[in-house]
Amino acid sequence: MDTNSKLSNDTAVILVSHGSTLPFAEEVFSEIKEKFIKKSGLAAEIGYMKVSEPTISGAVEILKGEVDDLGKIIALPVFLAPGIHTNIDIPQLLGLEPLEVDPRCPDGNYPAEHYLSIADDVDFDGEIELLGSIGPRDELLDIIDKRISEALADSKLDGDAKTGILLVTHGSRLNYNKEFATALFNKFEKACDLPSSFGFMELCGPSIPESINKLAEENDIERLVVVPVFIAPGMHTTHDIPHILGFLDDHTHEHDHDHVHDLTPVDFDGEILYPEPIKADDILIDILIDMVKEAI
C-alpha cells in the first residue's frame, strides 16, 4: 500500500483494546498503532476499554484534535473473537446500542462502580461505525506457523523429535470464542501434518490440561508447542497459562472478574515450547487495514 496516500481524509480509526495491568500489552498496542498509521495513511488512536489510557472516549477526543473536519470514526476491536466485550461493552462505551442482552446484567442497570457506569460519554457528532472482531481468517494461520517455527528453533531436541501442537485461546461465557477457536483449528489441522489440538484457558472446554493429556495419550510425542492465540502479552499469557503448563509454582490472580482455571495436572513429561502471542506482526497489521478498507 502507498503509505503516502490516505484511505479517507475525513475518517479516523480507533483500535479498541481491553487494557491490562501489565505494561506489555500497552507496548504491543503502541507498536500496532504506529505500524497501522504508517501502512494505512489514516489517523488512528488506541482506545482502551478499561485500566489503561487513553480510554475510548479519550481516543475520540485525541482524533478530533488530529483530524480536521472529522466526519467518521471507525472503531475496530482488535479482538480475535466476538464476545461480551465486542458485542456489549464496546458498543456502549462508544454510545451505541449493544448487540445483545448482557448475561451479566440483563436489565442493563450496572453497579455504580462498574466500568460501564463510570466511563465518560463519547462526544462526537459524526458517524461512528463499529466493526466486528478479526475472526478465524486464513492469514492467522501464517502467524501461527511463524510462532511454531520460532519455538522449534529454540528446542533442545533434534529435528526428528515427534512434535505435537496445541493452540490455546481464552474461552468465553458466550459460545463465540469456542466457535472461533474451532473454526481456526479446523483450518490449521487441515494444513498441519503434526498431531494437534486446541484448548481453552477458562470458561469453556476442553481445558488446556485436558487437551494436552489427550494429545499425549493418543500420540507418542516428545515435544509440544503450545501456541497462545492471543494478540498481546498480559496476565493470561505471562502468568495464567504458564502456571497451567507447570512453568510457575505460585498462582495469584489480579483480575477483576471471577473465573476458575482447570488445575488438573498436565500429564506430559516431554519438552514444552511456549512461543510469544501474535503481537504487532506485520500480517496482523495487514488484516486490520483490510478490515478498515472494507468499511470505507
What are the salient characteristics of this protein?
296 residues; alpha/beta; Rossmann fold; 2 domains; four-stranded parallel sheet; 9 helices; 8 strands; 37% helix; disordered N terminus
Give a written overview of the molecule.
With 296 residues, the protein is of the alpha/beta class. The chain folds into 2 domains: 11-78 and 83-131, Rossmann fold (3-Layer(aba) Sandwich); 139-273, Rossmann fold, CATH 3.40.50. 37% of the residues lie in helices and 15% in strands. The chain has 9 helices and 8 strands. The strands form 2 sheets. It has a 4-stranded parallel sheet, sandwiched between helices. It has a 4-stranded parallel sheet with strand order 6-5-7-8, with helices on both faces. Helix 1 crosses helix 9 (282-295). The longest helix is centred in the first third of the chain and has 18 residues, at 23-40.
Mean pLDDT: 92
CATH topology of the largest domain: Rossmann fold
Main beta-sheet annotation: 4 strands, parallel
- Give unreliable regions as ranges: 1-6, 253-259
Number of helices: 9
Question: What is the count of structural domains?
Answer: 2
Strand content is 5-15%
Find the count of extended strands (DSSP E, 2+ residues): 8
The secondary-structure class comes to alpha/beta
* CATH class category label of the largest domain: Alpha Beta
Radius of gyration: 20 Å
Topology order in helix (H) and strand (E) letters: EHEHEHHEHEHEHEHEH
Architecture (CATH level 2) name of the largest domain:
3-Layer(aba) Sandwich
Overall body shape: globular
Strand arrangement, largest sheet?
2-1-3-4
What is the distance, rounded to the nearest whole angstrom, between the alpha carbons of the first and last residues? 15 Å
- The helix content is 25-40%
